[in-house]
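Input record (Table S2, row 332):
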Amino acid sequence: MTLRVLREPNAAAAILAAGGLVGLPTETVYGLAADARNKTAIARVFAVKGRPVDHPLIVHIADRAAVADWAAEVPAAAEELMAMQWPGPLTVVLRKRTEVSDLITGGQSTVAVRMPDSAAALHMITELGRLTGTRGAVVAPSANRFGAVSPTSAAHVVAGLESFTGPDDAVLDAGACRVGVESTIVDATGADLRVLRPGAVQVPGGLNGEKAGGVEALSPRVPGSLASHYSPKARVLICSAEDIQTSAESRFDVPGQEPMDRFGLIAPADVTTPVGWLRLAAPHDDTEYARMLYAALRAADEAGVDTVIAVLPAEGPMLTAITDRVQRAATK
Ligand code: TXA
Ligand code: MG
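Output record (magnesium ion complex):
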C-alpha cells in the first residue's frame, strides 16, 4: 500500500472532512492531520503513529479567532506572543474548554494550539472549516512512527507511514520544511511563560523548562521530552570539532565499536570530513543546521551508518533547539 501525494489543499481538506488522515506540510516538520472534531479520525492518528493515547496532540488552526473554540481563557502574555509569532513555529498551551476531547488533551485540563506558517496548511484548514460548517481545526502530531525521526518532506512521510495508513489517506506536498525542527511549546497557564520544548521562537522572559528543574519534571506531559526521542537506528554521539581533527589520524573509539563500523558526520561546513567517513550534512549556520538535521539522520540509516558523529554549531538562535534534538537522538 502506498500513500497518495497531493498538491491541492482543497482535495486534502475533502479527505479530512470525510474522516481521512492527511500528511500536513508546516514550516517545522510534516504532521499527520485529522479533523480535530472527529474522534474516530483522531483515534486513527494514534494507531497509525503507534503513539500511546495519553500523549496529547496539538490543535492547528488557521484563524486567531479559532483559539476560542479550544481554550477557555487566553492570558494577556499568551495573546501577545500569538500576535507576534503566528503564523509561525510557536505552540501555546492554554486551559482547555470543558468540551475538548480527552483524546486531544491526553486527559489533561490544558490544550496546545498552534497556527503553522504554511500557506498550503492554512488553506487546507480553512477549506475544512467551510466543508464542515465550523472554524476548521486539525490535530497533528509529527508524521513519524512514535519515537522515530520527524519528517521534513512529503517523501519522508510516505516512507515512514505508508505501511500504516489506509487507502483514503494522503499527504499534502508543499515542499521541504523551512525550519526543520518542531515548534517551540510554551505553557501559558501559569504566572510565567514556560518553555516546554525549545524551537525557532525565542520567548522573551520565558522560563526554560530545563532551567526550571528539567523538562521531564514539568507537569504537562510532553512526549518530545522523553529522554530518547527523534532517534535514528544509528548511534549518535556529540563531539567537538577538535575531537574530530585529532581522531582523524588515529582510530575513533566509541563504546561497542566494531572494526568495520561506518561513521557519518553532521558538522558545520568548516569542519573537514575524516577519510572514510560519510558526510551527512555540512550546514553553513545554525538555521541551515536545523533545516538539514532530520534528513541527515535519515540518510545515515539509509546508508547503513553505525555511528553518527554530530558537531554542534558554535552559536545562533537555533542552538538550544538543535542541542535538545541531537541530545535526544543520542539517548538510547
Ligand atoms: O512543530 C510542531 O509542533 C509539529 C508540527 C506538525 O506542527 N508537531 C509536533 O507534534 O511536533 P508532536 O505531537 O510530535 O509533538 C507535540 C508535543 C508533544 O510533546 C505533546 O506532548 C505536546 O506537544 N503537547 C500537546 N498538548 C499538550 C498539552 N496540553 N500540554 C503540554 N504539552 C502538550
Ligand atoms: Mg513528534
